[in-house]
Design a protein that fits this description.
Radius of gyration: 17 Å
CATH class of the largest domain: Alpha Beta
Shape: globular
CATH architecture of the largest domain: 3-Layer(aba) Sandwich
Order of helices and strands: EHEHEHEHEHEHHHHH
CATH topology of the largest domain: Rossmann fold
Number of domains: 2
Largest sheet: 6 strands, parallel
Structural class: alpha/beta
Distance between the termini: 26 Å
Strand content: 5-15%
């Protein structure tokens, strides 16, 4: 994302008042543009094609097609799209499903006023972002789920460095500067990490890094 172009955001939530509140928060930010807003899953998929955004802010509970199906279809059609889930559901099942389906961030609606802008900026820069209660849920999931046996042994030393920095929340630009490599090389290492580990989001890479003891739980 260059400084000269605004971050384009699509809002998908079936509550008119919620969308109005989110729009008000985002329109106060000079670097963010609301590309559109929709009230159901089918409309979200149509809007993603008609006016492609950089970030989809997605409710999980909508009439017709639910947010999980929208998430899966959206990421399948546009893997580069950043999806920030914004929901009232603060349980492990919803969090795990959203991350497994490719969400880069997971926010609770009661923290939207404080976390929404930071969440959007983080996922655009390649970092995962979670509300504090969601971080606690992720820590619990990491402690109770087994890591792939021997997976870390398949990584090179440089891949481990990149994995650690990704999990710490460093952006592609920051990793490139610290390792004296190009941003393209960082992206290649990240793609190789996902392929070798079978983990298809920054959030899952972060979980794996915590589980393997590569950094302290946040």
């Amino acid at each position: 994302m260059t400084d000269s172009r605004k971050i384009r955001v699509l809002l998908a939530d079936d509550h008119t008042l919620v969308r109005a509140g989110l729009r008000k928060i985002l329109e106060a930010q000079p670097g963010i543009e609301v590309a559109g807003e929709v009230a159901d899953g089918e409309a979200a998929l149509r809007a993603l094609q008609a006016t492609p955004p950089d970030v989809l802010v997605l409710d999980l509970t909508m009439p017709g097609m639910d947010g999980f199906e929208v998430l899966r279809r959206a990421k399948s059609a546009r893997p580069e799209l950043k999806v920030l889930v914004l929901t009232m559901h603060a349980d492990a099942e919803h969090v795990a499903r959203a991350i497994q389906d490719g969400a880069e961030g997971y926010l609770l609606k009661d923290s939207a006023a404080h976390d929404l802008v930071a969440g959007i900026q983080s996922v655009v820069e390649g970092r995962a972002y979670y509300s504090p209660p969601v971080q606690a849920i992720l820590s619990h999931l990491v402690r109770t789920q087994a890591a792939p046996r021997g997976a870390i042994d398949r990584l090179t030393g440089r891949e481990l460095e990149v994995l650690r920095m990704v999990a710490e929340g460093s952006s592609t630009k920051e990793i490139a500067a610290r390792l004296y490599i190009s941003g393209r090389t960082v992206e290649t290492h990240r793609a190789n990490l996902m392929r070798k580990l079978g983990l298809h989001s920054v959030a899952r890479l972060t979980q794996f890094a915590i589980q393997e003891g590569l950094l302290r739980e946040r």
